[in-house]
Design goal:
Strand content: 5-15%
CATH superfamily of the largest domain: Type I PLP-dependent aspartate aminotransferase-like (Major domain)
Distance between the termini: 14 Å
Strand order of the largest sheet: 1-11-10-7
Number of domains: 2
Largest sheet: 4 strands, mixed
CATH class of the largest domain: Alpha Beta
Length: 438
């Protein structure tokens, strides 16, 4: 199985396990060798919804106030999400990419600046840096946690570094203490990409509330979803006001209805009232769903870590809650008779357990090379700096991780404990017969 995007894999995951019954048959041969499937029913579907969502959408529909400037739903969601996360204030946006884009603008990232970010992330993290005509500088991955290696950040900072943008990937927390200390030492903003980490925590405090901004996505696959949508958390009212103006075509709160007065340049990145209504309904289940995911992930880890060649992602000591948007592990083919990861994933799928190989190395994508070699970037950055960037743009730990990673999506953690037993059973079965599958 080739690497899939996070979104397309998530959409395909429920169907991949669909069939007519359920059974964990550990003694039989793998399904690819003619044995019985370990699992013959679909994992939990996503998203979950009931009358609450319907009522919220109908309320907005009948109000005739579908735009945040006249309606009340977006404002209500912002207040509730700030309360749930412990942030001082929140700004809702039309998607998570916009949340990141707004943050870079509010924090003053301009053409010619540099931003530090991980190479193991969704493309939006680098796209927003490129849209600012800044230079994305990739810091290699810590493969044990799948997070940006906080120990290597200091070595990439120079006089043009304008922001550090870690990603709390899969719901796991980056090393906040170390990253925040480095950002404060150099007096540059820490922009938390928490798009996959709803209710994730570092030392008992929600991720997204530590940095200058914390960005979230509510795209269809997310643990809190409205199909599309995003939010930014702030502990600074001034920054929130600047962000509001930017996301509202430059018209800040002080200028609403005031003869088209503008405080800055900007764009239309507002969240519609319908999305806010969906999110308010979804939030009523978020904490219980997070608890279920956490309990199931802990149980799954207790079984998988006993299987040679399977290494579930670890947490830094400060991570007090992993939100588990993804359950991530590393697969060592040597412990499976050199069965390639692609065949391992194929065998898992045949057992009714959909898995993904996750991201490919973002720092070596061709589109990035094309941008860096464009005439615009050549005007902004010296030939010496671009040559140096190309020479430094190597992330060997991340390259290896991208060849070993296996993902299970968050919906797979919402069922009973027996679902976790079936996942572990399928892995053990494949290992037992790996020589015949290779």
């Amino acid at each position: 199985m080739s690497n899939l995007t996070r979104r397309s894999f998530f959409a395909a995951a429920p169907a991949a396990g669909a069939a007519i019954g359920s059974a964990a048959v550990t003694g039989d041969k793998p399904a690819l060798l003619g044995g019985k499937k370990t699992r013959t029913e679909a994992f939990q579907s996503w998203p979950k919804y009931d009358q609450k969502e319907e009522n919220g959408l109908i309320e907005v529909l009948k109000s005739g106030k579908w735009y945040r400037g006249t309606g009340a739903m977006v404002k209500k969601f912002e207040a509730e999400y700030a309360k749930m996360t412990g942030a001082k204030t929140c700004l809702a946006t039309n998607n998570g990419t916009s949340a990141l884009f707004i943050s870079l603008n509010v924090m003053g990232v301009e053409p010619g600046d540099e931003v530090l970010l991980p190479p193991y992330t969704f493309i939006a993290t680098v796209n927003v840096v490129l849209r600012q005509h800044a230079l994305p500088v990739f810091v290699d991955t810590d493969p044990e946690t799948f997070q940006m290696d906080h120990r290597k950040v200091e070595g990439f900072i120079n006089g043009n570094t304008r922001a550090i943008m870690p990603v709390h990937l899969g719901g796991n927390a980056s090393h906040v203490d170390s990253l925040l200390a480095t950002a404060q030492k150099h007096k540059i903003p820490l922009i938390e990409d928490a798009c996959q980490a709803h209710l994730g925590e570092w030392k008992g405090r929600k991720v997204g509330t530590w940095g200058s901004t914390g960005c979230f996505s509510f795209q269809a696959s997310k643990n809190l979803t409205s199909g599309e949508g995003g939010a930014i958390l702030f502990n600074d009212e001034d920054a929130r006001e600047r962000a509001y103006a930017f996301h509202n075509n430059g018209s800040g709160l002080k200028f609403i209805g005031a003869n088209f007065g503008y405080s800055s340049s900007g764009a239309n990145l507002r969240m519609p009232e319908f999305q806010a209504a969906l999110l308010l309904a979804q939030m009523t289940r978020l904490e219980q769903q997070a608890k279920t995911r956490s309990e199931n992930a802990k149980y799954l880890t207790s079984m998988l870590k006993e299987i040679p060649g399977i290494a579930p992602a670890k947490h830094y000591d400060g991570c007090t809650n992993n939100a588990y948007h993804l359950y991530m592990l590393r697969y060592n083919s040597q412990a499976f008779a050199n069965l390639p990861r692609e065949k391992f994933l194929k065998a898992l799928a045949a057992e009714g357990i959909p898995g993904s190989g996750g991201y490919s190395p973002l720092n070596s994508q061709q589109f990035l090379k094309t941008v860096i070699e464009s005439r615009g970037y050549k005007r902004l950055f010296s030939a010496q700096r671009l040559k140096q960037w190309a020479e430094q743009n190597h992330c060997p730990a991340n390259d290896k991780l991208c060849s070993e990673a296996v993902w299970f999506t968050q919906n797979m953690l919402l069922g009973p404990r027996s679902d976790m037993e079936q996942i572990a059973s399928a892995v053990r079965k494949i290992q037992k017969f790996a020589g015949e599958l290779a």
